[in-house]
Amino acid sequence: MSAQAQVIVGLDIGTTKVCAVVGEVDADGITILGVGNVPCKGLKRGIVSNIDLTVRSIRDAVEAAQQMAGVKIETVYVGIAGSHIRAHMSDGVAAIADREVTRADVERVLEGARAIPIDADRQILHALPREFVVDSQDGILDPIGMSGVRLGVNVNLVTAATTCVQNVVRCAERAGLKVADVVLQPLASAHAVLSEDEKEIGAAVIDIGGGTTDILLYANGGIAHTSSIPIGGNSITSDIATGLHTPMGEADRIKRFYGCALGRLVEESEEIEVPGVGTHPPRRVARHVLTDIIEPRVEEMFAVVRRRIEETGLLEQLSSGAVLTGGSVVLDGMTDFAEEILGMPVRIGYPIGVRGMVALVNAPQYATAIGLVKYGAEQLADANERQANSSPVPSGSRRRAAPEEPKASSSIWDWLKQAW
Ligand SMILES: Nc1ncnc2c1ncn2[C@@H]1O[C@H](COP(=O)(O)OP(=O)(O)OP(=O)(O)O)[C@@H](O)[C@H]1O
Ligand SMILES: [Mg+2]
Question: Among 49, 378, 398, 410, which residue's CB has the most CB atoms within a 10 Å radius?
Fold first, then answer.
């Protein structure tokens, strides 16, 4: 490990699995050192429902990841999702201290935007800037270095039920870990799969996991909407289990091997073998029977997503279309079906901008964990920059604006900006 390299660990606690990804961050970017991925039965629809089962899966995933990476994992960035997540718009305004916007001004105005009354049982996860306003000029994405006297911001304030956040943190702590931050899962997934261009011209990230379908919309260069729908791949599996009279485990296996979201992509003559329940013998059935079960459920999922996007009024602004992540999107025919129902270009989102053991994480179900590592790297770069900017100013010299000061971490920061 080089002198300046730091280890960052993303911990994705999902409805079907816990995934820990170890990344090493240095001036050249993020290198994936290890991955641990184990099944988890401790969550329902993205929310922790059994602490013991969740802790056990976290321990196993972290143990596997640290063995592969050869490093001791102590601190993690952990994801959170579920229908308790809400987003509200909020504005903040602050005077620009030295007539040129610095990071301190930006932090102050964001602090102001966070200071709105929220329910006592909720807490703020993120204040995601949509646009800054310097004096009367609006639509600014990065105001640092601009001249003016008054800085305004419009943010998307993401809040979560405090008990849900506490349960996620408790699980990680009981597994012997410190939590550096709790991050909205679709935000992490977006970090992993979207290019800067896509964010700029507008895109939807749709993460279809086992228990939830999470949506995050980028419009006008910023995050404009986030929400969660309590349907995922497990709904498809249980439809198959009911429709084919087979146990859930077998239904999941059949879905992965033979499943297809669009019946028209399957030949009439194709057959599959379905194991029986209990003492019933296996049967051969037409593959069409399976797609007849899957297609209406997938159609329903994308129809709900489309309605959600329409309700935001942002459909026309998603110029680069939708990017699908999460384990369920590798089902045959998903992108074609999504394009038909959403009426926009759709692609599958594989994690980008990392090196090292990429073959192990090159699948849409790793987007959240990789995105958590990227988010952690961003926090690290931010902290380094803040430290560089707060180094003592020689007495008698005039305090200069942040962008002109030498930055200890500029190489990491520059790389991160390019990579995202
Ligand atoms: N090859 C495949 N074909 C179809 N579905 C698949 C395939 N591989 C995985 N899945 C499905 O993906 C889902 C799990 O995805 P993922 O790992 O993203 O979920 P999760 O993160 O655990 O859950 P969530 O994000 O909803 O809390 C399961 O429903 C699983 O059956
Ligand atoms: Mg997930």
Answer: 378
